[in-house]
Amino acid sequence: MKECMDNVRKNVPLVHNITNYVTVNDVANILLACGGSPIMSDEPEDVEDITSVCGGLNINIGTLHQSSIEGMLLAGKKANELGHPVLLDPVGAGASRLRTDTALRIMKEIKLTVIRGNISEIKTLAYGSGTTKGVDADVADAVTEETLNDAIAFVKNFARKTSCIIAVTGAIDLVSDGEICYVIRNGRPEMGKITGTGCQLSGMMTAYVTANQEKPLEAAASAVCIMGLAGEIGWSRMQEGDGNATYRNRIIDAVYQMTGEDLERGAKYEVR
Amino acid sequence: MKECMDNVRKNVPLVHNITNYVTVNDVANILLACGGSPIMSDEPEDVEDITSVCGGLNINIGTLHQSSIEGMLLAGKKANELGHPVLLDPVGAGASRLRTDTALRIMKEIKLTVIRGNISEIKTLAYGSGTTKGVDADVADAVTEETLNDAIAFVKNFARKTSCIIAVTGAIDLVSDGEICYVIRNGRPEMGKITGTGCQLSGMMTAYVTANQEKPLEAAASAVCIMGLAGEIGWSRMQEGDGNATYRNRIIDAVYQMTGEDLERGAKYEVR
Amino acid sequence: MKECMDNVRKNVPLVHNITNYVTVNDVANILLACGGSPIMSDEPEDVEDITSVCGGLNINIGTLHQSSIEGMLLAGKKANELGHPVLLDPVGAGASRLRTDTALRIMKEIKLTVIRGNISEIKTLAYGSGTTKGVDADVADAVTEETLNDAIAFVKNFARKTSCIIAVTGAIDLVSDGEICYVIRNGRPEMGKITGTGCQLSGMMTAYVTANQEKPLEAAASAVCIMGLAGEIGWSRMQEGDGNATYRNRIIDAVYQMTGEDLERGAKYEVR
């Protein structure tokens, strides 16, 4: 994983983000923190040019507009033409028909490298409808030690079916290419009290797969470990009276400061 | 007020926000800090589904677009059908015709639970035109100890006329259902040096009235006290060299950490 | 420069910002930090009214939409009618045809007071096409001690040709009205690891030229010195483990706390 990190810092991947307006600033700052470079553009007339100067594309459907959906499809097709990695973050798939339909349409029309979401969102994509409540995973869907084997099988199967890397994040994170599955146990539950840690991870993961195109599975898993480990490091620096706003900053700071050695020492994963 | 807080933390109200892109991230984080859960969506094709999975709706006109106005009206009508509380934050009403007209149209077409704004915005809604300068209240309108009696009468009267809870925030805050009026003296003037403390309060207030539907007036007044008290606690944690950016984080942190006992002890209000 | 700062704090210039949704919150907070007052609006139907209640207009093309382009042109023309200063920040000009064309169109249709960008963006505007990579300056274009004389000549010449103040920011900053050129050496390279320090500077610079209309060149140069000095002060307050998220807050905090004496003592510039 250290090598994946080195490649991001060395190559400074330029990532085109079509993402929601809620968490976009944090996505930009975590991309800079990890060693990438962000650019945002969703206007259909602008996206093809922008994607052409970038190395990878991060599509996040957290706040859709009619014109940004068109932008996502145009940018995705251009990225496919150019051979750039494309990540989809299906925020809120299952919570509305527009979100579910848009995510499914993007999966159909664009060759994706990675799909990253919570378990409810990914189940919605797999089964065509879901139980997502808002933008957080439904408790009934949660990946726990008890449901782990079934969840791994589900993720592997969906990765094979879609020919994508599937990254399901939650208390336990799963990242699979259909053959093997990283089971990752970094992170802290308090990260769920910050808006956009998932969006931030998607941005950073796009930088990782862009700078590590010969090993996208390890790159995606590395990004998940880094985010979780940053959550642990950030938490360890919290002082009395600090809450979720300060925690948000500490996590991005931890990504900024993390070394390859920190990552190798702190990453908690097994390969199944 | 402690019971209102307990209900928010126990019920985790899911709040649909159609809000401006300036302060949206802080609105999401303060909703998480107080124990609620935020989701943002303004696209007309998306809003009815999203509001249907939520418990309350927060409409903020801080940065209007033609399509988001349509989204506000569709979401508001759906929320009314479902019996969800709806809050209106008429940001900048009086500063432009579009803002004034949109706020008045929303008041006419949607049954609102609460309207929360500064005194200039609320006067604009009451009299149909205003003196708002930008998004801050006009000095001539300010609620002071000298003008307090008149201001209380104005707020009570407007609450009766609209059948809404009216929350006017400033140096002294007034929250009334037309019968009684909470007069609240929490907060610090330095909060005006942070963008979006009003927007944040509107988001949190929506969570409060959603989780406390049998006592919306007390819930709205509780949210005002919490925001002001968080401003006081956050200020007490400021260190040499800290400014408005750090203060912003400290306020959200203080909401995150506040207990019911802190609130009961720190709330400064009288009922008139 | 102290007098320019005093004028901003005394006059509290209200600045209308049509800016990107990535860094808009930081732009609002730095405007408040420096003593100005921000309002954001990009909807064509809203912008003329909003600009009319403001004193200056900040146009930033970081995330263009068809409707916001129309808003920029309408607001710019109204600001010209009213004699308000107008600043253009051509974010990403050279990276896409839409950005380049929009910046050139704004230059043609609106009388601008200041254009502020990185060297690649400004060269794109001067030569009609560019080598901008994303939103960061191309290394080949960088203003260094070796290329300084040529860069000064270029900036002076472009300022004369456009009858605007031209502010090129980077490791060395240049601000010229065509006659003289401020060469400024404040700032730190780590500022490039925060999204939006350029956008923030543009917002603050608009406040400065608005409150100092009889000396816009000195006002623009003052804003550049303040931003760079805030970067130095903010950096001096960084603690072990702090990264770019905390640094972002510290810079805005430093603007908030800076006195005229701090500025006079810390500003590092020569006039050429």
Protein architecture, described:
- The structure is a homotrimer of 272-residue chains.
- The first copy, chain A, is α/β, with parallel strands linked by helices.
- Chain A has one domain: 3-Layer(aba) Sandwich (UDP-N-acetylmuramoyl-L-alanine:D-glutamate ligase).
- Helices cover 52% and strands 14% of the residues of chain A.
- The first copy, chain A, contains eleven helices and nine strands.
- A nine-stranded mixed beta sheet of chain A has the order 2-1-3-4-5-6-7-8-9, with helices on both faces.
- The radius of gyration of chain A is 17 Å and the shape is globular.
- The two termini of chain A are 17 Å apart.
- Chains in contact: A-B, A-C, B-C.
- At the A-B interface, α5 and α10 of A face α2, β2, α3 and α10 of B.
Question: TL;DR?
Answer:
Three copies of one chain form a homotrimer. Chain A has 272 residues and is an alpha/beta fold.
Index terms:
alpha/beta; homotrimer; UDP-N-acetylmuramoyl-L-alanine:D-glutamate ligase; 272 residues; 14% strand; nine-stranded mixed sheet; 52% helix; globular
SSE class of chain A: alpha/beta
In the CATH hierarchy, the architecture of chain A is 3-Layer(aba) Sandwich
Oligomer: homotrimer
Largest interface, with Cβ-Cβ < 8 Å? A-B, 33 and 34 residues
Here the CATH topology of chain A equals UDP-N-acetylmuramoyl-L-alanine:D-glutamate ligase
Give start-end ranges of low-pLDDT stretches of chain A: none
Mean model confidence by pLDDT of chain A: 96
Shape of chain A: globular
Q: CA-to-CA gap between the ends of chain A?
A: 17 Å
Beta-strand percentage range of chain A = 5-15%
Secondary-structure element sequence of chain A? HEHEHEHEHEHHEEEHHHHE
Give the radius of gyration of chain A: 17 Å
What does the main sheet of chain A amount to?
A: 9 strands, mixed
Number of strands of chain A: 9
Task: Work out the helicity level of chain A.
Answer: 40-55%
- Spatial order of the strands in the main sheet of chain A? 2-1-3-4-5-6-7-8-9
> What count of helical segments of chain A does DSSP give?
11
Number of domains of chain A: 1
